[in-house]
Backbone:
């Protein structure tokens, strides 16, 4: 029986070669900053397109003065079909985001990494999610951006830029807090314009942004 890495189309060398996670230079949303919390959801699911895998992450973030944690959802591509080709490709950025979140909780991505299949709403559709159960509920730091997207259905929302250990370090022990704080001091709100030809972030994307924008405790 193939191990987890083989099932995902990975091998040990590919995982070990991943760049360590780092930070590069109307609705109530969180201000850009570093927040403590835990991962409520972290897992991979298949889409309706053959061979395509996406990752769903849900952060539970503790905010001073609020009784319950807020939730911020993030989706990113993990595996996809190369354009105009039959080749199935691992998204290196998606792999980096996944391994970074796992490493923040002390979990490594190997053939023996513990997973469980659960039913989870993904873009408002029930999907079988391969959940990384050992990464859930452990304290981490979320590096959160406040985003303004001009012309979108929900113009203000939050976005997770990185997940790191509680002290703000990555798997190499490098502190990412100073870089991130300098970044958000220079640009407190990330202004994002819709892509050319786009109208508004409707349907599945808008519903997630609405959840990230409107969740109150």
Residues:
């Amino acid at each position: 029986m193939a191990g987890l890495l083989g099932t995902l189309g990975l091998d040990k060398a590919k995982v070990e070669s991943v760049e360590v996670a780092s930070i590069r230079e109307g609705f109530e949303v969180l201000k850009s900053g570093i927040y403590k919390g835990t991962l409520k959801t972290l897992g991979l699911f298949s889409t309706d397109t053959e061979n395509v895998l996406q990752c769903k992450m849900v952060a539970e973030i503790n905010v001073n003065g609020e009784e319950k944690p807020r939730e911020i959802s993030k989706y990113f591509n993990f595996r996809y079909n190369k354009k105009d080709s039959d080749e199935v490709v691992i998204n290196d950025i998606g792999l980096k985001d996944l391994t970074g979140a796992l490493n923040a909780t002390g979990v490594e991505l190997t053939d023996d990494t513990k997973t469980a299949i659960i039913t989870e709403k993904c873009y408002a559709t029930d999907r079988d999610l391969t959940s990384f159960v050992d990464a859930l509920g452990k304290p981490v730091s979320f590096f959160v951006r406040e985003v303004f997207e001009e012309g979108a259905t929900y113009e203000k929302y939050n976005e997770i830029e990185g997940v790191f250990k509680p002290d703000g370090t990555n798997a190499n022990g490098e502190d990412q807090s100073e870089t991130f704080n300098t970044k958000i001091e220079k640009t407190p709100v990330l202004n994002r314009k819709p892509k050319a030809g786009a109208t508004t972030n409707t349907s599945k994307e808008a519903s997630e942004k609405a959840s990230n924008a409107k969740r109150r405790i």
Remarks:
- The chain has one domain: 28-214.
- Residues 28-214 form one domain.
- Confidence is low (pLDDT under 50) at residues 199-204, 213-217.
